[in-house]
Amino acid sequence: FDAVDVIRAKRDDQVLSPAQIDWVIDAYTRGVVADEQMSALAMAVYLNGMTDEEISAWTHAMIASGETMDFSGLDRPTADKHSTGGVGDKITLPLAPLVAVFGVAVPQLSGRGLGHTGGTLDKLEAIPGWRADLSNDEMLAMLRDPGAVICAAGAGLAPADKKLYALRDITSTVEAIPLIASSIMSKKIAEGTGSLVLDVKVGSGAFMKDHASAKRLAETMVTLGRNAGVRTSALLTDMSTPLGMTVGNALEVREAVEVLAGGGPADVVDLTVALAEEMLRLAGTNDVDVRAALTDGRAMDVWKTMIERQGGDPDADLPRAQETSEVVAESDGVLMELDALAVGMASWRLGAGRAKKEDPVQAGAGIEIHVKPGEAVRKGQPILTLHTDEPARFARAEESLAGAIVVEPAAEGADAAAASIV
Ligand code: URA
């Protein structure tokens, strides 16, 4: 095979054969196909799409580029959750220990954030002492006891995807359904989970801005999972406004701990419970009272053990940013819109996220949200508190929030807020 022929075929909207796909993914992983050639192919896929057969072959070629894990030796079923990425999405933190309470092991291999969406590992690294990198043996030991682990995916898992994702990120070829579906599912199938629940985000803060494309992405991923023998299902959930009341690493950990203590914002609790119930259902555990494990301390006990086993101190004070600044309502009325993408960008600019892979993140940076869409506000009332260690960052964060906060007079507000629920 020749890379130029493969690129030309996809450029001309032809269907690639499984053999062509196997070859190009393997050759790219080995450095035989160059980054610029893979960039051109990714753009051709972005523009012309792929058939279901091509997506399946592409996914399996990415799985075959590295090692696969096997949890079949565990004495209990496994279930994992994957979110397609959102703003304020700290659900993995309370969810993994919550599911483990019911005897289903959770191998939650996670990533770091890039761009405006946060990464689970960045959040947990806000906890003093906590480390993300575990050996496969350490990971297996945690799946036995306490029954859940959140850690970095080892370099050996789907290395083709690691290379390709970094390339897509800098060539504007991320938001293509065949590429997102194969990227996520290659990692999850290689990870060896028995069941998988996908939380596919819809709205301004998500890759998929509209319901129809989110549904297509969900169906594509569910089909890939089921065909590979993983019990897979998907929930479509709203990402037009941030989840919960915090965005940013330590701020989100604080909120996750509130949920584990039986409190926390209703939207975070409800989504955590819905995803836990779906993971347990797929793993064959029905009719359990999931909410009770949040209020009676069982999920918190698992959480504390998980954090301690990875070197963290679950009772330590979390880092706080040195400076804060408030964004207030400019008029009386109802908050109609608090745009997820804008809040994510602002949090990123405050230092919670990174622009390049190697950049450090500020543990304390981010945004506290005081008012959610649908709620009344008075002129001058704080809507957001911005947190950062570097006050020079406030101006750029405020720029990203321009137009993102919409307050309208009360009467109209009520109707439109109801209509905006997905
Ligand atoms: N997350 C991934 O792992 N891959 C994508 O392509 C998009 C989101």
TrEMBL record:
Entries under SMART domains matching the protein: PYNP_C
Pfam families named among the record's database cross-references: Glycos_trans_3N, Glycos_transf_3, PYNP_C
Protein's recorded name: Thymidine phosphorylase
Pyrimidine nucleoside phosphorylase C-terminal domain span: 334-408
SUPFAM superfamilies named among the record's database cross-references: Nucleoside phosphorylase/phosphoribosyltransferase catalytic domain, Nucleoside phosphorylase/phosphoribosyltransferase N-terminal domain, Pyrimidine nucleoside phosphorylase C-terminal domain
Keywords tagged on the record: Glycosyltransferase, Transferase
Annotated NCBIfam families: PRK05820.1 (NF004490), Y_phosphoryl (TIGR02644)
Family to which this protein belongs: Belongs to the thymidine/pyrimidine-nucleoside phosphorylase family.
Keyword Glycosyltransferase appears in the UniProt entry: yes
Subunit structure as annotated in this protein's UniProt entry: Homodimer.
Glycosyltransferase keyword on record: yes
